[in-house]
Amino acid sequence: MRSAGIQLRVALAAALAIVVAVVVLGVAVATRLDSQLEGTLDRSLRERATEVARLAASTPELLTRPGTLEGRLGGSQLLVQVIDARGRIVARSSGLGSRILPDAPVVEAALDDREAGYGSSRLGSDPVRVYAAPLGELGAGAARGGAVVVAGTTADIEDTLAATRGFVVLSSIVAALLAAALATVLARRALRPLRRLSSGARAIERTGDASQRLPDPHTRDELGTLADTLNAMLASLERAREAEQRFVGDASHELRTPLTALRGNLAYATKHGADPEVLADIEADAARLGLLLDDLLALAREDAAAPLQGEPVDLVAIAREAAAADERADVATGDGPVIVLAERPALERAVGNLVRNARRHGPPEGRITLAVDHDRDRARISVEDEGPGLTAEQRAHAFERFWRGAGADTPGSGLGLAIVKAIAERHQGSVTVDGSRFTIDLPASHGSIKTRP
Fold first, then answer.
1. Architecture of domain 222-301
2. Where are the beta strands (DSSP E) in 93-246?
3. Rounded to the nearest 5 degrees, what angle is found at the Cα of 414, between the Cα atoms of 296 and 421?
């Protein structure tokens, strides 16, 4: 399951993050601890060498007295060896036994270059830290001009660091297991609403019922937003399906009427022979059917149209062309063009539909007025006849598909205004009606007009 995969990935990611964090912290702690412990040992070696150097300068005869060179750092013994200018041993601590401190480079530097310094070496099988410092050349002691060498084992430091590294490794394993377990539990709880959404989506997919809704996860996070978005999408699909069903039903009804008339007239002509009246009826029914199909195709194209691929179009030119096709139409507009970004053929069809609607429903001898105006960011083109216009109830249904009003006896498919609305909305605009005045409102543009061939 996808949820199991997400749980596993979350658990592994949490475990890896914890391991990396613990390891980084462990390395930092071990490095800091190593520095601190080595620094403490170095200070102790230097302080002990300083004490021996003072003793060699003030009372050199005490260097060979038993116990004088003994010293300890915590649980470890400091080993001291005093040599003369020729490198011969003058005195040493009893902790060395029969062993001799290694002739490390720092010892040679203390004798030859008269410079103090630290070094690391081995005393038998034990790792040691060595500090060598030159002794003064004044005085009567045997060690004058020589050097003092102090060493301390680093085995305790290495044991401490090894224990720290082991603790880091163990802590990493334990922390990774705990993080993985906790991440699995939290991921399972977080994905539980997602599994419910997935189950609901599968149920809707099986039934094909867009009226169903996904379960509400009752959260205010991204999952709740996703559920709301998907439910809104289902509601939109349900409305689209209902509109499609109504459209198919209305289209079937509208197509049936002229087809029935055509069949009847053809049957009459077949039986009785054709006469001018029957032929005229057949021609009228065929024309009506052709117009209806043309409108249906235009509306289908608008419903399925790709995103707008427009060009600068002058509404004034559109209004004048529409008015030129009707002898009763006039144009009222100000100076200069009014530019919108549009698909010119679609806009011409919308304005032409409004003019035909005004001619059909206005007074027989009344004038039709096309007006164009604009403000900063909106452009409008309106068509108005001299009739009484639509009532409030009629305005509520004017742009519905196949609506022609109660008792309408004028020809037409009832799709003209629906096509106008679809075109306006695809152009990011709208269409409104006020009495007998229909207005298309579109976003204004400031582009230049291309010359039409």
1. Orthogonal Bundle (1.10)
2. 117-123, 126-134, 147-153
3. 75
CATH code assigned to 2-161 = 3.30.450.20
What does the alpha-carbon distance between residue 38 and residue 43 come to, in Å, rounded to a whole number?
Answer: 9
What are the structural domain ranges in the chain? 2-161, 222-301, 307-443
Rounded average pLDDT over 55-76: 74
Name the token pair of 79: 């080993």
Assigned token pair, 96: 């060395």
- Both tokens of 40, joined, read 């403490």
Helix (H) or strand (E) holding 276: helix 276-303
- Residue 372 phi, psi (nearest 5): -130, 130
> Could you give the C-alpha distances from 286 to 250, 292, 299, 414, 418, in angstroms and in order?
19, 10, 20, 17, 22
Stretch 67-78: mean pLDDT: 70
**Exposure class string for 324-339: b at 16+ Cβ within 10 A, else e:** eebebbebebeeeebb
Q: How many residues does this entry show for the chain? A: 453
Q: What is the pLDDT of residue 371?
A: 92
- Spatial distance between the Cα atoms of 192 and 185, rounded to a whole number of angstroms: 11
Q: Computed over its alpha carbons, how large is the radius of gyration of the chain?
A: 50
Q: Give residues with Cβ within 8 angstroms of 311, minimum separation 6.
A: 341, 342, 343, 344, 447, 450
Q: By three-state DSSP, how is residue 331 classified? A: strand
The helix/strand/coil state of 389 is coil
List all residues 6 or more positions away from 73 whose beta carbon is below 8 Å from its beta carbon: 40, 41, 44, 152
User: How far is residue 215 CA from its own chain's centroid?
Assistant: 25
Contacts of 77 (CB under 8 A, 6+ apart): 70, 71, 93, 95
* Superfamily the domain 307-443 falls into: Histidine kinase-like ATPase, C-terminal domain (3.30.565.10)
Q: CA 287, CA 371: separation in Å to the nearest integer?
A: 31
The pairing of beta strand 329-333 with beta strand 368-374: parallel
C-beta separation of 131 from 49 below 8 A:
yes
Strands, DSSP E only, in 84-146?
89-92, 117-123, 126-134
Read off the pLDDT of each residue in 410-437 and give the average, rounded to a whole number: 85
What would the pLDDT profile of 288-347 be if each residue is shown by its tens digit? 777 777 777 777 777 665 567 778 999 999 999 998 888 888 898 877 889 999 889 889
